[in-house]
Design brief:
Structural class of chain B: alpha+beta
Order of helices and strands of chain A: HHHHHHHHH
Strand content of chain A: under 5%
Largest sheet of chain B: 4 strands, antiparallel
Oligomer: heterodimer
Helix content of chain B: 25-40%
Distance between the termini of chain B: 27 Å
Largest sheet of chain A: none
Helix content of chain A: 55-70%
Number of strands of chain A: 0
Strand content of chain B: 25-35%
Shape of chain B: elongated
Shape of chain A: globular
Radius of gyration of chain B: 29 Å
Number of strands of chain B: 10
Number of helices of chain B: 2
Chain lengths: 191, 213
């Protein structure tokens, strides 16, 4: 009998499977999306700071082929939604310290999503917060020149990486409570 | 009885773990429903479609921007059917002084722009006002800062951080040291995460090889 197959439940709802026997696959796919997104940002920063391209021409990799992507507010909001849903759906598979950090990332992402929602509502209704001439986020009241998308994705990414580190290197108690094979070995039964 | 393998690698029959207390099923469903509702609401907003109402979509330089290159023009971008009957656009130092515009404001498509002659670092104010054919008016005052040691412009186009052109009113890509610091931090995190995932995969392959060997 292959012990690996005993990991997690082969039945149950999709939500349960995403947090047990499919957690590893789901987290990997989620990380591919996250890393791909950051690769685009890094490519754009390379174009701006190293290649010295004008900012309007510095559109990352996909933005070169599809220029509308870089200015599409809905695309960026869509990514915020994907992050929110992913963090929410995969949270239960994290155990102990890693769940705490994952939850921190989820909470920040939720606020990030609210900020986007405020911006979109202002843009749609024409009523701007604090009588500003353009749609304004709450963070921009404190740090006017911050690049909102970059800032929020960074402060979400930090606890995510910590959570991933702890999830992939659990202590004995956490390993005993894991229902997934993310840590690279089958789950040990609780003693 | 479920067979689980402990980390030591040998198959051992262990008693099944007592089932964890289940959370009330409605909690997960309520959470999922909330996410769906919010996402659906936003989607509906996006389907409202374009309207012709004239609004300010963005300014260049953006409000509060700190510029490392002296701007040669200011531009206000509008949404909707922008055909103003009157318009004014001016720039001056925040601490007072004459207007710094070097030509009259011009309307081109969705934008109202004017060339300016800024030579010194400091804070500047942009004031704009437009009257619309339906009697409506739009006006506002924003500010930007020219950093000490800012470079002179190379061409007619403003080379500062792009204004908040997008509907959300914020930029995606700018030549800002704060943005660069964030990107560098993300680069470090990205390398760490990639190393973590790749190392995990290698460890798993070794473990599988050990078991099969």
């Amino acid at each position: 009998m292959v012990a690996d197959e005993a990991v997690g439940s082969r039945s149950g709802s999709l939500f349960e499977r995403l947090n047990s026997d499919r957690h590893r696959l789901a987290v990997n796919l989620f990380m591919v999306v996250v890393i791909g997104h950051w690769a685009e940002h890094l490519a754009q920063a390379y174009q701006i700071w190293v290649l010295g391209w004008p900012i309007p021409q510095s559109r990352g990799v996909l933005g070169l082929a599809f220029p509308w992507l870089i200015t599409s507010e809905w695309l960026h909001y869509g990514y915020a939604i994907v992050m929110l849903v992913g963090l929410f759906l995969l949270r239960r598979g994290f155990v102990g310290r890693s769940r705490l950090w994952w939850t921190v990332a989820l909470a920040i992402q939720f606020w990030h999503h609210i900020e986007h929602l405020l911006l979109l509502l202002q843009a749609q209704t024409g009523h701007h917060l604090f009588d500003r001439p353009v749609p304004t986020s709450l963070l921009q009241l404190v740090v006017p020149r911050v690049e909102l998308h970059l800032f929020y994705n960074t402060v979400v990414f930090v606890p995510m990486v910590v959570a991933m580190y702890l999830h992939l290197r659990p202590n004995r108690a956490e390993a005993a409570g894991m229902a997934c094979a993310c840590a690279g070995r089958p789950v040990a039964a609780a003693s | 009885m479920r067979l689980r393998r402990p980390s030591g690698g040998r198959g051992v029959m262990t008693p099944p773990r007592p089932p964890a207390p289940r959370r009330a099923p409605w909690r997960g469903r309520v959470g999922a429903l909330l996410v769906v509702l919010v996402a659906g609401g936003v989607l509906l907003l996006s389907l409202v479609g374009p309207d012709d109402e004239v609004r300010v979509a963005g300014l260049d330089p953006a409000d509060g921007a700190r510029l490392t290159v002296v701007p040669s023009a200011v531009t206000v971008t509008f949404t909707g059917d922008f055909r103003p009957s009157e318009y004014h656009l001016s720039v001056s130092r925040a601490d007072g002084g004459p207007p710094l515009v070097t030509g009259g404001p011009r309307v081109a498509g969705q934008t109202l722009a004017t060339p300016i002659a800024v030579t010194e670092p400091g804070w500047y104010l942009i004031g704009y006002h437009v009257s619309l054919p339906d009697g409506g008016q739009l006006s506002g005052v924003t500010r930007f800062q020219v950093a000490p040691g800012a470079a002179l412009p190379n061409g007619p186009a403003p080379t500062a951080a792009p204004a908040a052109r997008a509907a959300g009113g914020h930029v995606h890509g700018s030549k800002d040291p704060l943005g660069l610091a964030l990107v560098l931090l993300d680069l470090v995190l990205l390398v760490a995460l990639s190393g973590l995932l790749l190392h995990r995969s290698a460890a798993r392959r070794r473990a599988v090889a050990d078991r099969s060997g």
